[in-house]
Write a structure and sequence with these properties.
Chain A: It comes from Flavobacterium cupreum. Chain A: This is Acyl carrier protein. Chain B: Keywords: Lyase. Chain B: This is Hydroxymyristoyl-ACP dehydratase. Chain B: It comes from Flavobacterium cupreum. The complex is a heterodimer of chains A (84) and B (145). With 84 residues, chain A is mainly α. Chain A has a single domain (3-83), classed as Non-ribosomal Peptide Synthetase Peptidyl Carrier Protein, Chain A (Orthogonal Bundle). Helices cover 61% and strands 0% of the residues of chain A. Chain B has one domain (3-142): Hotdog Thioesterase (Thiol Ester Dehydrase, Chain A, Roll). Helix content of chain B is 19%, strand content 39%. Chain B contains two helices and six strands; from the N terminus they run αββαββββ. In chain B, strand 5 (117-125) and strand 6 (131-142) form a beta hairpin. Chain B is globular. Classes of the chains: A mainly alpha (84), B alpha+beta (145). The interface between A and B is small, with 10 and 13 residues.
């Protein structure tokens, strides 16, 4: 899976949890989940659990604390997939 | 763990404490009761001359017993000073009316508790054992939001 495919999958996961459709439509690697997409901490947990299920990976507390923007999320998922 | 100790740690007080007694708690579930005394203030207005317990109060009762009490248990009975409790979502069905002086029993089963978020499936029954309310509730019980 290349980075673009990964971001596309990530967008599908994020969609139900964001209320800011404009920021969602213009999502880039720099997009911040909390500040740009207006996702709260409770929904961020749901996104991380959906990432675990979709990509069949396990996210730990350290990863969770870093997973605040698209770029870091992609990095973490790529690292986890590579380690499988 | 002392169940009474969990109630003592709840961050609520009258008139917004909706837990009387906890009957059971373990890693996956909790059961507790509450009796809606007829003197509760909201009965004066919900409804005029026809007191029925509001759905939001039933939901709050489910959350206090099913989520906050269970959360305190899962945190090893340690609700620290800087722990924040926040109700984040509810998907409820109200099946039967609950009248003044009715005693209800709430049973809540953990769906997950990860990264500070506790999500549960909760059922409320009346004294006749009929389901009056059920749904999915979730909240954050964490030191930071």
């Amino acid at each position: 899976m290349n980075k673009q495919e990964l971001i596309l999958k990530l967008k599908t996961i994020i969609k139900p949890y964001t209320t800011n459709t404009e920021a969602f439509d213009n999502l880039t690697e720099e997009t911040d989940f909390i500040n740009d997409l207006s996702i709260n901490s409770a929904n961020l947990v749901d996104i991380v659990l959906d990432i675990e299920e979709t990509f069949d990976v396990v996210i730990d507390n350290t990863d969770m604390e870093r997973m605040l923007d698209v770029k870091t999320a992609v990095e973490i998922i790529e690292t986890k997939l590579a380690a499988k | 763990m002392e169940l009474q100790n969990i109630i003592a740690q709840l961050p609520y007080s009258k008139p917004f404490l909706f837990v009387d007694e906890l009957l059971q708690a373990d890693e996956n579930s909790i059961t507790g009761t509450y009796t809606y005394h007829e003197d509760l203030d909201f009965y004066k207005g919900h409804f005029k001359d026809n007191p029925v317990t509001p759905g939001v109060i039933l939901t709050e009762t489910m959350a206090q017993i099913g989520m906050v009490c269970l959360g305190i248990y899962l945190l090893g009975n340690e609700l620290k000073k800087d722990t924040v409790v926040a109700f984040t979502s509810a998907d409820m069905q109200f099946l039967k009316p609950v009248y003044p002086n009715e005693k209800v029993t709430v049973t809540s089963t953990k769906i997950f508790f990860r990264f500070g978020k506790l999500k549960c499936e909760a059922i409320m029954k009346n004294e006749a054992g009929q389901e009056v309310c059920k749904g999915i509730i979730a909240g954050m019980i964490t030191t930071k939001l």
